[in-house]
Design brief:
Elements: H1 8-28, E1 70-72, E2 75-77, E3 87-94, E4 116-118, E5 126-132, E6 137-145, E7 153-157, H2 159-165, E8 172-179, H3 181-186, E9 213-214, E10 222-229, H4 232-243, E11 253-258, E12 261-269, H5 272-286, E13 291-294
Parallel strand pairs: 3-7, 4-6, 9-11
Antiparallel strand pairs: 1-2, 3-8, 4-7, 5-6, 5-8, 10-12, 10-13, 11-12
């Protein structure tokens, strides 16, 4: 039986419905199907702080493929293709749910809960040690992606890597060192390294935030509220004052916008006891009495 074509009016109505559905779908995600905003998932898995670092192994480097020259945002980049050391100092950021499950530059599936990272020019794959000079923490990650492409940023960490390094609250200064094949074969990568990439004496590394974060985007844990301001500039000034007081021993300091105020909070801390100990250090060295904020509840 031959089916006749639908009337013109019906075809037009169907087209309108299809366009409307596409537009509504675009409100929740980008054209490639990713979430329209980045950040953590609503309920990250428990125990991420105990995820082990990446274990370096010798993986062949190939010319071309993910290591061929490329151009992003009007800038050209030429990735390394030899097993050479690389040391950098700059800002670290992290990327999460918007890219979770998508393909990385070397074709793997990005897992925001694995110990991985993105770098603009390290050969893929590579392994790197990343150190947070503000708290002394170090991690080892596997480089399997390209980025970040914002000025001043040298590495884009996975969610778990950022959590372990203590930089989930914003964009923070780090030191990055690529682990070479020779260091992997000899086992030297497991030994402490000289801090050849050092912060200049007397220069305090500021924690840089693109903007105040909404309170509901704060990573789970216990936070210490050190101050609250009606103007963002006041919050930023206190943030930098605290970071210029290393004796206070805070890992990171964020500014959250809640209930019409910009709240300066240090954290997150895994337990209430950790937060209380940190509060005592802040009180002793700054004269301020922090308010403990419990963001661990679902």
């Amino acid at each position: 039986m031959v089916r006749s074509s639908p009337p013109a009016a019906a075809r037009v109505a169907a087209a309108v419905i299809a366009v409307a559905a596409a537009l509504l779908g675009g409100c929740a995600s980008s054209p490639d199907g990713r979430p329209s905003t980045d950040g953590p998932e609503a309920r990250p898995p428990p125990g991420l702080a105990q995820v082990p670092d990446a274990v370096p192994r010798v993986e062949p480097l190939r010319v071309g493929g993910p290591n061929k020259p490329y151009r992003i945002n009007g800038r050209s980049y030429t990735p390394m293709t030899d097993d050479l050391p690389l040391q950098e100092e700059g800002l670290a950021s992290w990327y999460g749910r918007k890219f979770h499950g998508q393909r990385t530059s070397n074709g793997e599936v990005y897992d925001m809960y694995a110990m991985t990272a993105a770098h603009k020019t390290m050969p893929l794959p590579s392994y790197a040690r990343v150190r947070n000079p503000a708290n002394g923490r170090e991690i080892v990650v596997r480089i399997n992606d390209r980025g970040p492409f914002a000025d001043g940023r040298v590495i884009d960490l996975s969610y778990t890597a950022a959590l372990k390094l203590g930089v989930l609250a914003g964009v923070a200064p780090v030191q990055v060192q690529r682990i070479t094949f020779d260091e992997i074969r000899s086992g030297r990568w497991q030994q402490p390294r000289d801090e050849t990439v050092a912060i200049a004496p007397g220069r305090k590394p500021p924690l840089v935030l693109d903007d105040a974060l909404p309170g509901d985007r704060a990573p789970a844990g216990f936070w210490l509220q050190v101050g609250a301001f009606r103007q963002f500039e006041g919050a930023q000034q206190l943030q930098r004052q605290l970071l210029a007081t290393p004796q206070a021993g805070v890992d990171s300091i964020a500014v959250f916008e809640e209930a019409g105020l910009f709240r300066v909070q240090a954290g997150p801390y895994a337990t209430r006891a950790d937060a209380q100990q940190a509060a005592e250090r802040v009180r002793r060295h700054t004269g301020r009495s922090p308010l403990l904020v419990d963001r661990s509840a679902p």
